[in-house]
Amino acid sequence: MQIENQEVDDRLFRNAMGSFATGVTVITTEVAGEVHGMTANAFMSISLNPKLIAISVGENARMLRHIKEAKQFAVNILTSEQQNESKQFSGQLNLEHEITFSSYKGLPILEDALAVVTCTLHSEYVVGDHTVYIGQVTGVKLEQKAPLLYSQGKYRELKELQDLG
After folding, report:
1. Flavin reductase like domain location, by residue (predicted)?
2. What pLDDT is stored for residue 160 in this prediction?
3. Average confidence (pLDDT) over 141-147
4. DSSP letters along 85-141, please?
5. What is the radius of gyration, based on Cα positions, of the chain?
6. With contact defined as beta carbons under 8 Å apart, do 52 and 137 qualify?
7. Whether residue 162 has pLDDT greater than 60
8. 4 within domain boundaries
9. Which residues lie across from 136 on neighbouring strands?
10. CATH of residue 74
11. What tens digit of pLDDT does each residue of 10-68 get?
12. Separation of first and last alpha carbons in the chain
C-alpha cells in the first residue's frame, strides 16, 4: 500500500476539524491571587484509573504559563446558558458585568457550570504549536443542565435532550 505525502491545506484542515461537534469549556486557574480563564474545546477524558483528563493550550496563549506556574487548573464545562462566558474568555466579548467565581478544591470555578473537574498538573507534552496538559483529577461537580455545543464555527444546542435525570 502506497501512502501519498501531500500537503494538506490549512483552511481545509481547520474546517474539517471544526465539523467535529464539541462541548465548550473554560479553563480556570489562580496565580498570585489573580484568577485567569480561557475558553477551550480541546478537552478529553484520558483514564479512569487513575482519573486523568487532557487539555490542549496554544503556544501563544497566556494560560500556558499560568498553568505551568499554578500546577493546577479547573475545567468548567459550560451550559447552553453560558455563551457569554465562553465569548468573554475567548476574547470575543467584553462583558459589562464582572464574572464572579466560586471556589472548589482551592481553585476558582464558574458558578452554574454544567460540570467542573479540578486537577493537579500530572504531566505536559509540547506537541506542534500546543502544549497538552494531563491533569490528575482532584474533584468533580455535576449539575443536570443542557450543554453548550460548538460546531462549524457556531454555538449549537441539542434539539432534544433524552432524560437528563
Report:
1. 17-157
2. 58
3. 93
4. HHHHHTTS---SSPPPEEEETTEEEETT-SEEEEEEEEEEEEETTEEEEEEEEEEEE
5. 17
6. yes
7. no
8. no
9. 52, 120
10. 2.30.110.10
11. 888 888 877 778 889 999 999 999 999 999 989 999 999 999 999 999 999 999 999 99
12. 49
